Every structure is written in C-alpha cells, then in structure tokens.
Sequence to fold (695 residues):
Amino acid sequence: MKSTKKAKSATSPAPRPTKTKPKPAPKPRGRPRKLRPDEVPPAPANPETPADPTNPEPAPPPKPPKPPTDSGDIVTNLLLRLVSPLKSLPVQTNEGVAYIRPEDIAYITTTKKRHLEIYDLQGRTWQRFDTITAIYKLLADDPRFFLAHQSFVVNIFAIRSLRRMPDTKRLFVTFADPVPGSAAVAEKNVATLRSLIEL
Amino acid sequence: MSPSDQGPKPVRRHAKPTLPAGILPGFLARRLQTDFLVALRSDDNNLEFVSCADIMAFNVRSKKTSAILIDRTVQTHRPWSWLRPFLKKHGNWFAIGRGIYINANRLVRSQRDRKGGFQLTIEGGAVFNLLAAYAPPILKFLETKSLLQVDPIAKTHALLMEMGLRDLDKDIRTMTADEVAKHFSTASGSAIVLSDLILNFLWQQIVLIRAGHDSPADGGNLRTLWYEIKHVIQSLPNIGPGNPYKVISQQLALMVKNHVCSYKEFNFYDDGKWTIGAYNPHVILMAEKEAHYGMFLKHMQDLTGVSIIATGGQPSGITSEYFCSEFRRIMSNLPDHPPPVVLALVDYDPFGWALQQTFMQDLATFGVKVPSPPIHLVLPAHFTPLELAEKATDLTQDGKTPPAMLRKWLKVTNGIDGRPFAMEAGQFIKIRDRARDIFLRLVDPFLIVPAPVPKRFWEEEAKRHQSLQIHGLAAFTRCMVARRLQKDSGQKPRGK
Fold:
C-alpha cells in the first residue's frame, strides 16, 4: 500500500518544535495550613517611617487597594427600587381594565374561586383570572417579586416584618398600612427571602 | 514643559444622561412626578414652562398644538411636529382621535364608552374618548388584545360584563336618585336601565355574602330581596314599564343558570315539595301538580323508597337547586349507584311535556346527569278505550295551545290515536290500584332494593311525629303538675 505521508527532502528545514502550553500548577485543595508563629512573615513597613538601618531586609510591597465598585450598578439598583422595568400590569375590573404599576403592588395571592387577588400599596384590591405561576412568570424580569409560597408572590421592597405564628409556627410577612392581610412564606423559601431583603 | 506648550485643552462635552438598560422611558419621570419642560404660551405672549408630567394630553387642531392640563388647556410654543420626536423618546404618545395625543405610560383605566369607542382614564383623573379605529397601536403597546378584558378571563365574569356590570364605589341601597341615574341611565340619559341596576345590586349582595356578611334574604324568599332595593327603585322617576320584581327573578335565574352564583348562597327558604328516597334514591318520581305529592307520590315512596318531587307547575329554580344539591350529596355516599332515572306524572298534553323537559334541563343545570329519557306514566296505553273516549280533551277546541307547540308535541307523541287529544294526570291516579301497579311495573327494572322496601318512610315519619307528640305531652303534663304544686305550696301560711 502506498504511504500517504508526505516525503521529506534532505534540504527541508527542520520541523519547528511544537509549542506545548505548560500545564498550570494544580490548585491547592482545602484550607491553607496555619502558619507557626516563627513562619508568619513580618508586617509590611510603613513607607513614611524610615527603614531600620539595622535590618537589611527590604519591606514587602503594599497591597494594592480594592478597585471601586461600578457606580452604574448602584444607580440601577436604586432606580429599580423606585420604578419597575416592566410595563403596567393590566387587571380586570367590572367594566374594563385597570393598569397597575408593578412597583405599586404589595403582594398577589389566590382565592377560593381560583382567581388572583392583587393588593396594592394603597390597600386596594384588584383581580385577574390566571394562575399564580403565570403571573410570576409575567413579573419574572422584575427582581422585586418573589414567589414566597405556592399561593403568594410578594414585593420584597414592600415587606415590613417577617413573623411566625405562635400556634401553627408558620411564617408570614406583613406590609405597611393600609395594605390588608399578610402573605405566607414557605419554610424552604425563608433563607432566600432573607437574603433578598438583606437581613 | 510649560502649560502653553501642551497644546489646546480638549473641549469637554457633557454626556447625555442615559437610563440604565431595562427601565422604560417615561416611567422614572412618572415616579418622580417631574419631566422635561414644555414651553406654553401664557398671557401677554410670555412663555410658561410646565413639566411634561403635568400634561395629560396634546390637542392638535388647525395647525395649533395645545397642552391639556388638569385644569386648563394652553397653546404650546412649539408645533406638534417639533414636539413629537422628542416626546416619543421619553414616553409613548398615541393618537386617540380628534387630534388628541395621550401618553400611554400614564394610562390608568380603559372601559367601554356608552357614547361609542372606549373611555381612557389618565393619571390625575382626566378622561378621554378613544375612537375604535385608533386602538390597534395602543393595544400593541400594552401587549394586550382588548381594552375591556384581560386574557384569560373567567366565563362568569365575562358574562356579567356583557350583562352590564359596573364599577361602583358605593352600595346601591345607599345611593341617591342622582347617583343611580349617573351610573345606570341610558346613553341619552332619558331612562334608567333597570336590568343593569338590579344586576349590579345582586352582584353587590353576592360579593358581601362571600366576604362573610349575612344574606339580606336569609331564610326568606325573593320578595325579601326585593324589599332591600324597593326604596331605591321607587325614588327613581323614569324606570320604564318593566316590573322590577320580575326583573330581579329573571336576572337571578340567569345568573344561577350560568353558575355565577347559587340560590343557596342567599340562603333562601325552600317551600318546595320533595324528599330524597332512602332505599332507591337514584330513581326520581316527579309530578306536575302539588296535590299529587300527597295523593300519589308519598305512597309510592313508602312502597319503593324512590325520590319524589312535585314541581307545582313550572319548576321553581330554588326548589330545583336545593333538590339537586341534596340528591348529589346523598348519591356521593353511594359511589357504585346506577345512573339516575326519571319517571314523570305529568298531563299528557304539550304543556305537561314541556314542563317535564324544563325539569330535565334544571336537573342538568344543577349537576344531575340523567342519561336516559324520562318515562311517562300518563300515556294513552295506560287507559281504557272508554276512559279515553270520555275523559280526553280536544286541544284544538280550547284554543290555549299554540299551533306550533301542538304540532311539535303530536310529532313526538302522536296524540291519542293520531288525534290532538290530551289526558290529565289526575285521571291516571284516580284508580289508585291500577296507577300503583303501572308504576311498580315501570320502575321495577331500576330498583336496587326491591319493593316493598323494609320501612315505609312516611309511616315512619308519622310514627316519629306521634312519639314526639307523646313525649311532648308527657313533658307538658309534668310541668303543669309541678306548676300547680308550686302554686299550692305558695298559698300555705309560713311559720307555725
């Protein structure tokens, strides 16, 4: 069978050595070993104080300062607290449709008739006829809304207290007046809720 | 190097402020209640600067642009062609017809306008009329298909809206005549739409009952409900020729039929004649006439343990609902029960058969599924030829039966020997033994517990009544004796 390899002439230059990337050093696993007192390096020297002529060792370089956080992110967070990035939410009334700003919603819950009741920060109640999952999906792009319970979507910026019922030990959140009622919180969602409202 | 050798300093341009990604234009201004300024021509040709947040709409007419504020309308300094591109970046301004442009970001409410088109409410309370032809761009912006309904919508709510439900902030029972006229008058304002008024009154009561309040007709009847609103309707000068009490009955019947509410929610008293059977509850023996309840139905229930009901003419919605509700409750305790069957003791004439069909429809409405057609007891085959010759009535002679109704009935039943003659149910039960035997023969295939059943219901009821009365009499006698003794002991002198 004919060889498919390219023939090499005597005058062809020597093949270039293939560059192989050096393998990165394996990352150390686990917590770093605690240094003994004699192994602890000395503190870096203060540049204002003159170096000790008796100590010939050079002072270690100062640690670079932490880079400042992006001010745009701060502004965005503040603006998101003020206003929702979403359009107004249409809700059903007896004669037509009302348009509620998402930032004005305190919480959303289901009713026995399988409708949705939407409570706004002024204490008014509105209704829609879809499911809690569907409304949560609609409001998903707004970070203020959280599915605290299978029947409650809450506006985390409207929460005023997190309490536990003394008899049933169930958790619920309350809102500022005049918002009526409270919203239940499932035990599995408490940690996430607390991290969201920065407790 | 001296400063002069460094070259000219670069001109620093102020960067245009940009909103963070995700925030729609106009919303921040809406929240802060401030926006860019629009120059308006004030008096004496001076300029007034008003925040765009305070402007409800722009009106462009005859090449002049006016800003519509909450309390006035002022001409702008710049024309609409100059303003529009700028406004488009900071909001979403749409034409609604007649040269008016509104900011859709500030839309608060949309509903049907009685004078045509839609009524749009903007923040601040300003109301504008949107012509239907201008709706599509606004619908596209709002990402919705309708300005009246949010998808999905419950069928019951859609029906109520179609019937004329209103957004009311006050109980109708406390409204003045002017307030009622404001909400419920016709487009021309000449009369009150009574059906809308009563519908909204009923809906308000339902909402209150569901919120935990007592029913205004608790233990009463429809007339009790009528008295709740009578004073409001009587104070209205122009309600038209309709009978308000009848309208209440019709509107409530329509709402119940479409499952918007139930009679039970109002806790109406039911004076209907019916009893669910103890042994063969799945068999329903119904009668058209109330008198036949005692004359025939009770006896048949004693024999066979079937369920019985006497509608007393056209079936009452309240009775039908209560009967079906109890029937379903009993049947739910018998999971392997056979399908319900209906035997009908109605007149052999078009009205009797129509009444029977209405009863079957009521059963279906209130959740009792009867798969097979009803079995009629009053048929020509169950009479002797002599009875038919003497007792049958000619339907063409009395003139009460509409011809179309008669033709339809004859097509189904063939009358009596092909002639338009009728027989009354009363003639059937006159001969009790024959009526009983015919009933037992027809019902036998459907009975689970064969006739005669172990205990006769009405006999047991009579015995229970009797024992209660005996017990009551005994207690009465004891109390009378005790009272007499007390009285006698009171007359005796005290001390020695």
